[in-house]
C-alpha cells in the first residue's frame, strides 16, 4: 500500500503540475493581453486629452497651430504625468501629417520607431508595438482621434512612456493571478487525492476478487482434468510452481510468466475429449490409441482459443510435448522454434511426474529423476534451461515436491497473484 500511495501521489502531483503550468500559461497569456489593452487605453486617453485641448486637429490648414499645441501638450504632460507621450505625430483623416514633436525620446528607441512600419489601423481601432529599453517599457501606438461630437478627426502616432508605478501594479497583479491559478490547481489535486485513492482501493478490491475467481476457475478445471487422468489435484499446483520458479530464475518478463502459469494449469485440458478406455487404460497403448491420445493437444488448443484471457496458455498447451531434437508432437518443432514457455514447462512436467507417486509407480528421489532427465539433455530438453533447472530445483523440491496436501496450492496462489496485479 505505501507503494500505491507514492505512485498515486507522484502521478497526481505531476498531473497537477502540468495542468497548473498550462493553466498558468493560459492565464499569463490572457493577463498579458489585458495588460496590453490597459496600456493602449492609457495611451488612447492621453491622445483624447490632446484632442480635447486642441479642437480642429483634422484641419490641415491649421497645421502651424496644431504643431505649437502638440509641443506644448507634450511638455506639459511630461511635467505633470508619469505616463505621457515622448514623441507624437498628428495625421488628418486623409493621413496627411500636420504636426510632429519629440520631447526627450531616447535615441535607440527613436531608431526602433523609425524602422517600424506605420500601420494605420482599419476603422477606429488602435495599433501598437511594445519597445523595451533602459529597463523601461514604451509603446509605439497609432490611435484614432475624434472631435467633441464624436466624428473622426485623424490619427495620433506616438511613443508612450509607461509609468513605472503603473507597470509595477500591472506586473504584480498579473503575477498574483498566475500564482493564484496554479495554487487553485494544486489545492484541487490535494483535495482529489483521498477521493481517487478510495476509488483505486475499490477497484483494487474488485480486481482481486475477479483475479481470485479466474485463478480458482483455472485451478478447478486443471484439477478436474488431473483427477480424470488418474492423477491428483496437487500435480497441477506442483508442476506450475516448478515452471514458475524456473521462469523467474531464467529472467522471463511478467507478461510471459502470467501466460506460463495459465498454460501450466491447463496443459492437459484437452484430455477431457479423450475416452476413458484410452485415457485410463492400465497397460501400454496401441499405435492407434496413442495417435488418439496425442489429439488431446489439438482439443486443448480448441478450448483455450475460445477465451481471450486464455489465449496465452496456447504456447504450453500446444507445445509441451514437443522435443528439442524435433521428435515430439504435434508439429515436430525443433530447438528454439518451440515456444520458451513450453520448453520450461516440459522440464517441470517430467520432473514432477518422476518424483511423484502414481497408481502404477512409487516416487523417485530427485537425484535419480535428474539423472534420468539428463539423458534427454539436448534431445528432449533445451540444454541451457536444463542446466539451470538442475542447479536450482532443489529448494523447490524441498518446499513442495511430491506433497499431496494443500501446501502447493496455497503457495502457488500466493506466488501467482502478484503477476496478475497492477505493477
SSE map:
Layout: H1 2-53, H2 63-80, E1 84-91, E2 97-102, H3 107-115, E3 127-133, E4 136-146, E5 152-161, H4 164-228, H5 234-250, H6 254-265, H7 276-279, H8 287-294, H9 296-304, H10 314-319, H11 340-355, H12 366-374, H13 383-400, H14 407-416
Antiparallel strand pairs: 1-2, 1-5, 3-4, 4-5
Helix pairs in contact: 1-4, 4-5, 5-6, 5-11, 5-13, 5-14, 11-12
What does this structure look like?
This protein is α+β, with helices and mostly antiparallel strands and about 425 residues long. It has 2 domains: about 1-175, Beta-Lactamase (2-Layer Sandwich); about 210-420, Hypothetical protein af1432 (Orthogonal Bundle), CATH 1.10.3210.10. About 60% of the residues lie in helices and about 10% in strands. It is built from 14 helices and 5 strands. The chain has helices at about 1-55, 65-80, 105-115, 165-230, 235-250, 255-265, 275-280, 285-295, 295-305, 315-320, 340-355, 365-375, 385-400, 405-415, and strands at about 85-90, 95-100, 125-135, 135-145, 150-160. The chain has a 5-stranded antiparallel sheet, sandwiched between helices. A hairpin with a 2-residue loop joins strand 3 and strand 4. Helix 5 crosses helix 14. The chain is rod-shaped, with a radius of gyration of 43 Å.
Structure described in brief:
The protein is of the alpha+beta class and 423 residues long.
Which class of secondary structure composition applies to the elements?
alpha+beta
Strand tally, please?
5
Number of continuous helical runs: 14
CATH homology superfamily of the largest domain: Hypothetical protein af1432
Radius of gyration: 43 Å
CATH hierarchy class name of the largest domain:
Mainly Alpha
Q: Ends: how far apart?
A: 12 Å
Strand order of the largest sheet: 2-1-5-4-3
Amino acid at each position: 500500500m505505501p507503494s500505491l500511495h507514492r505512485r498515486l501521489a507522484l502521478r497526481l502531483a505531476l498531473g497537477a503540475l502540468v495542468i497548473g503550468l498550462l493553466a498558468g500559461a493560459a492565464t499569463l497569456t490572457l493577463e498579458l493581453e489585458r495588460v496590453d489593452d490597459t496600456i493602449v487605453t492609457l495611451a488612447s486617453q492621453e491622445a483624447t486629452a490632446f484632442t480635447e485641448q486642441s479642437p480642429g486637429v483634422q484641419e490641415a490648414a491649421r497645421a502651424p497651430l496644431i504643431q505649437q499645441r502638440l509641443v506644448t501638450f507634450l511638455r506639459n504632460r511630461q511635467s505633470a504625468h508619469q505616463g505621457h507621450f515622448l514623441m507624437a505625430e498628428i495625421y488628418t483623416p486623409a493621413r496627411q501629417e500636420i504636426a510632429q514633436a519629440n520631447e526627450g525620446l531616447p535615441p535607440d528607441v527613436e531608431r526602433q520607431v523609425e524602422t517600424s512600419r506605420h500601420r494605420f489601423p482599419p476603422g477606429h481601432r488602435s495599433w501598437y508595438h511594445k519597445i523595451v529599453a533602459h529597463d523601461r517599457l514604451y509603446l509605439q501606438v497609432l490611435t484614432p482621434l475624434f472631435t467633441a461630437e464624436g466624428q473622426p478627426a485623424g490619427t495620433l502616432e506616438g511613443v508612450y512612456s509607461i509609468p513605472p508605478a503603473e507597470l509595477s501594479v500591472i506586473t504584480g497583479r498579473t503575477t498574483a493571478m498566475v500564482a493564484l491559478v496554479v495554487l487553485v490547481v494544486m489545492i484541487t489535486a490535494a483535495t482529489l487525492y483521498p477521493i481517487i485513492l478510495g476509488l483505486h482501493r475499490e477497484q483494487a478490491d474488485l480486481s482481486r476478487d475477479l483475479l481470485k475467481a479466474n485463478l480458482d476457475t483455472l485451478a478447478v478445471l486443471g484439477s478436474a482434468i488431473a483427477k480424470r487422468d488418474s492423477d491428483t489435484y496437487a500435480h497441477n499446483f506442483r508442476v506450475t510452481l516448478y515452471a514458475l520458479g524456473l521462469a523467474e530464475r531464467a529472467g522471463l518478463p511478467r507478461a510471459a510468466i502470467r501466460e506460463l502459469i495459465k498454460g501450466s494449469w491447463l496443459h492437459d485440458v484437452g484430455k477431457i475429449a479423450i475416452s476413458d478406455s484410452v485415457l485410463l487404460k492400465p497397460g501400454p497403448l496401441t499405435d492407434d490409441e496413442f495417435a488418439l491420445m496425442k489429439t488431446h493437444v489439438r482439443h486443448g488448443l480448441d478450448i483455450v482459443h475460445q477465451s481471450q484471457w486464455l489465449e496465452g496458455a496456447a504456447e504450453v498447451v500446444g507445445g509441451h510435448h514437443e522435443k528439442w531434437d524435433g521428435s515430439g508432437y504435434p508439429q515436430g518443432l525443433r530447438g528454439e522454434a518451440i515456444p520458451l514457455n513450453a520448453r520450461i514447462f516440459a522440464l517441470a512436467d517430467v520432473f514432477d511426474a518422476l518424483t511423484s507417486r502414481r497408481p502404477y509407480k512409487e516416487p523417485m528421489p530427485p537425484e535419480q529423476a535428474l539423472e534420468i532427465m539428463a539423458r534427454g539433455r539436448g534431445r528432449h530438453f533445451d540444454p541451457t534451461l536444463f542446466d539451470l533447472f538442475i542447479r536450482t530445483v532443489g529448494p523447490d523440491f524441498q518446499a513442495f515436491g511430491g506433497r499431496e496436501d494443500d501446501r502447493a496450492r496455497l503457495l502457488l496462489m500466493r506466488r501467482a497473484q502478484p503477476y496478475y496485479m497492477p505493477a
